[in-house]
Amino acid sequence: MLTQQxxxxxxxxxxxxxxxxxxxxxxxxxxxxxxxxxxxxxxTMSLDFSVKLFAGYTEAQxxxxxxxxxxxYHLYRMHRGYKHGDADFKALLARVGxxxxxxAPPASDHEFYYVYQCQRCGQKYPRRxxxxxxxxxxxxxxxxxxxxxxxxxxxxxxxGLIG
Length: 163
What we know:
Elements lengths: L3 H16 L7 E4 L7 E4 L4 E5 H6 L2 H19 L9 H10 L15 E7 L5 E4 L17 E8 H7 L4
Parallel strand pairs: 1-3
Antiparallel strand pairs: 2-3, 4-5, 4-6
Helix pairs in contact: 1-3, 3-4
């Protein structure tokens, strides 16, 4: 994982190497980004990157995300179409070798699941969060649910209960 200073330097390097333009603003990590790997903020002219997602990416994947955000940045500065659907955006992104979509996030950080089971039919329900079993019933037979166990994600994948 890159430090804040290394991230700034990497963004500046990629901007010079691939876009042949300087990056003169800020590139920062944002702890609140969960789904998006990065974002360009026109109001502040800054690039935000997800700490959580960057930690699981390879260097090549991080560079692809940086190229994607720099494409938004440079097109905005040139007063050209900088949004995802714009032809200018698609053309520049293809030219620099960036990806249109962020890489799939690393494997789920949920190490374990709560497993509930119907007392009547035996149907199992793996859940990431606990819930009040008095408020819910089985979707197949409307039987009472009970908490059975806390199970690792690997075990549930082996049983075919999760993907």
